[in-house]
């Protein structure tokens, strides 16, 4: 069983880090004010405001900020300001043993995907494919905040993950499987292949989402995931949205799912609200879930935080 981080409560301290691309200081400050208005204290990693082109700071410095937050007993949750590019470069500099001894909530998506899955895979820590600092703003849909706080601030179990109204979950291949859930952004996950941080889908339920990728790119991604055994190794598949993805050669994202994934015969659910879409379900990476594509439900079977 994976390690559950302590739950988040109003009045707790959230530690901000920028593990990938930089974020404008004015945006950071505005989002921090939202967190404070919600009743949280905020502390800053040394390189939160740094800017060195594509990445905020050298990988060793960004990794140091993450490790300092895990070591700080006053920090309850670690919140990346954004994803962007370059999160993968900090992974060799993380101390996964220290992280497992100091479990904390860490939430994010996009390029943060590699951090979420690595913390589960190498520290056995449940992490959350959910909101980043950039999402804490007054016009964020209530659904997103409800999902986030239900996952990080309550020990409710079991918890059924439901899409917002008028956005139905759909199942394409019937079945019923139970196992840990892993995954996230396809681009980020593919970048881990043939590295020490390659995602392990054996006996897992795999969920995927993408943004700004033409279907020719998704075709390439499905090819690589197939040839690397990731689809064959997993128990079932959940496909999130392909946000702002362009149609190539009159072939849609749904066409590719039908052509590549349906023939695998594994339980297959599509249209989960995750990641880059307007609506963001909170997916606990490493937690045990039940994927029931007969009754069309996705259920988290265990508490994802500890009291």
From TrEMBL:
One Gene Ontology biological process: proteolysis
Q: Where is each LD-carboxypeptidase N-terminal domain found?
A: 14-129
Show the InterPro entries listed in the entry: Carboxypeptidase_A_C_sf, Class_I_gatase-like, LdcA_N, Peptidase_S66_N, Peptidase_S66C, S66_fam
Record domain LD-carboxypeptidase C-terminal: where: 178-291
Q: Name one GO molecular function term.
A: carboxypeptidase activity
Is Lipoprotein one of the keywords? no
CDD domains from the entry? Peptidase_S66
> Any idea which residues are catalytic in this one?
110 (nucleophile), 209 (charge relay system), 276 (charge relay system)
Question: SUPFAM superfamilies recorded for this chain?
Answer: Class I glutamine amidotransferase-like, LD-carboxypeptidase A C-terminal domain-like
Protein keywords: Carboxypeptidase, Hydrolase, Protease, Serine protease
* UniProt similarity note: Belongs to the peptidase S66 family.
What's the protein name? LD-carboxypeptidase
State the organism named in the record: Bacillus canaveralius
